[in-house]
Amino acid sequence: MTTPSALKPKQSLGARIAARLGGGVMRVFLILVALFWIMPTIGLFLSSLRGPEDIAATGWWKIFTAPSELTFDNYQRLLDNSTITGSLVSTVMITVPSTVLVVVIGSLAAYAFAWMDFPGRDWWFLLVVGLLVVPVQVALIPVSELFGTIGIFETTLGVVLFHTAFGLPFAIFLLRNFFAQIPRELLEAARLDGAGEIRLFTRVVMPLGGPAIASLGIFQFLWVWNDMLVALIFAGSDSPPITVALQQQVRQFGNNIDVLAPGAFVSMVIPLAVFFAFQRQFVSGVMAGAVK
Amino acid sequence: MTGTRRVIAAAFLLPALVLLGALVLYPIGYSVYRSFFDQAGTGFAGIDNYKALFTDDTILTAVKNNAIWVVFAPTVATALGLIFAVLTERIRWGTAFKLIVFMPMAISMLAAGIIFRLVYDQAPERGVANAVAVSVHDTFNESAGFPKARPLPVHPLEKGEGGSFVSKEPVRAGEAVQVPLVGVAPAKMPGDARPAKAAPEADGGGITGTAWLDFTRGGGGKPNVVDPEELGLKGLKVEAVRDGKVIATATAGADGVFTLPASADGAQLRLPAENFREPYNGVDWLGPSLVTPGIIGSYVWMWAGFAMVLIAAGLAGLPRELLEAARVDGANEWQVFRRITVPMLAPVLAVVLVTLMINVLKVFDLVFIIAPGSSQDDANVLALQLYRSSFGTDADLGIGSAIAVLLLLLVVPVMLFNIRRIRKEAQR
What we know:
The structure holds two protein chains of two kinds.
Chain A: H1 4-7, H2 13-48, H3 52-57, H4 62-65, H5 73-80, H6 82-115, H7 121-130, H8 137-150, H9 156-179, H10 184-192, H11 197-208, H12 210-226, H13 229-234, H14 242-250, H15 257-277, H16 279-289
Helix pairs in contact in A: 2-15, 5-15, 6-9, 6-12, 6-14, 7-9, 9-12, 12-15, 12-16, 14-15
Chain B: H1 2-34, H2 48-55, H3 57-88, H4 94-102, H5 109-119, H6 128-140, E1 157-159, E2 165-167, E3 176-181, E4 207-213, E5 237-242, E6 245-251, E7 257-260, E8 268-271, H7 291-316, H8 320-328, H9 333-361, H10 365-370, H11 376-379, H12 382-391, H13 397-427
Parallel strand pairs in B: 3-4
Antiparallel strand pairs in B: 1-2, 2-8, 4-7, 5-6, 5-8
Helix pairs in contact in B: 1-13, 2-3, 2-13, 3-4, 3-7, 3-9, 4-7, 7-9, 8-9, 12-13
């Protein structure tokens, strides 16, 4: 007769207690890390819900020991502020076209690289791969002069074109690899049915490329939405996106937390919503984008 | 037939190639060219702009800071990512943990910058970092009592060394010593201070005295006299010093009375500087010396999640049997981690490190937002200097272009590595 515990591999009681305790310590450690990690964001959020007088007088953590009135007044004022609301519109006007253009132009080129024959195809593709890591900083001076010459410096169009160009290497790289995995027979069959390249692209490749296109779209969307540097230089001073509008407020930091905190939160709402809704696609985009 | 196919291929490629050519390739060439010309863009400058990168103090700070960034930010973020990935691997709520750590990646560097500007705020009633620093400090050091207190010329005290005050005459046993001070706002007096009392005669040859605020509100008090409404300086430290050595100390009570032993006879009284120190105001996180480490901290906060997610994916791909075999052979968890997990993860760790390094080279927003104007020079990095050189009031596009070329040169090895990797894959 064996007792159930005797079935387990030999393990001294001490080792088991140590393991249990170690697990407990590890759990506490992880909980502390998680709290530590989320605290700065919570701090900003709670600050955004306090009136200017409360912010000036005490820290946001005081609401736990001496609850003061939380209020949406800051947000109300922010939405009445035409600079901020206008900048949110600008952000959308920049982000949506930049994302759509990168997806469309990128998938056209990726399809050509994956399934069309033309001279020097592999060399052109290597060139695109080489451009993956080019820092945007290299283009700031030349492109501002170029845009100045053709008259689109400090316009939304300029910002969109810049973001599209710098999104393309990654888009082409990611999509070509994905398109190349489409079974050849599928394409051959469609060709035999008399489909031209354009039909193949719209009816076969684009639908099959869905997951990769979703990853790319989310990645590019977040990238452009969150950008400050490109917009700081290329956006018109009358239509800055939210990042630039808030950046101009930072100089007064300390006196205008009641504007900056809710403003930063409003700018984070869409990225966070996208992030939580499309975690899987975001993660696979991030993985594909490693060494970019 | 092949002719039309070529036309179609060209049509598919054209938009991408035009944009890449005009906005990525051409700028590279132009930046290289422009970097050899002077500020005005008309005179050939040779390598003067590149020399300036390593001689101009402000730019040199940027180069040095970038080096610090590239060394520390990726390693710390990767190390934390590795720890988090390994620890959460077999925990049920690991996903929730990962979500919290990964979340900052989705927000803008601007928002992260504002978040950390608030964390690092100097005022302990706004910045949580200083709130913690101050409360920890005050737990271990009793807060200084009387920052602005000082004697009047008619008082029997004078300025000593390092912010202390000393008695003009040595003290004598059996004599009541007077320690009057002024300059403490009524609101800053300890709440439980009581009206001061003239010190009673000490027993056994000790020395007694009174430390009090020699000031009567509304007038009527006389200097050097313990008037009825004047309060004792509760908690004031008094030292007896002879030949530079402290031989006895005492602390004034609520009524200002203190007692020194008889051995202090003939010594000089000293009110040490710690009585008068300004209250501790926390750490100057965004001052010249801590601003770069501080901003690196905010970067790690943003990117440790990236490292964690990639490493976790790598961990999931490790052969379970190998790890189990090692455990069966009696290896403990640490040995398994050191000898098997880390070496097998090496390729993933390399990818994470290189990606973060490239990313760190270009860091701009965080420094631009978090470093206050006063310490932006100390926090300077290449991308920030490029922006300042190129778009400020007295822009020098030659210098700006030279910085751009330097940034590009630093990523060329990675560029070549990527190209070789793709060529190998194509040959397979």
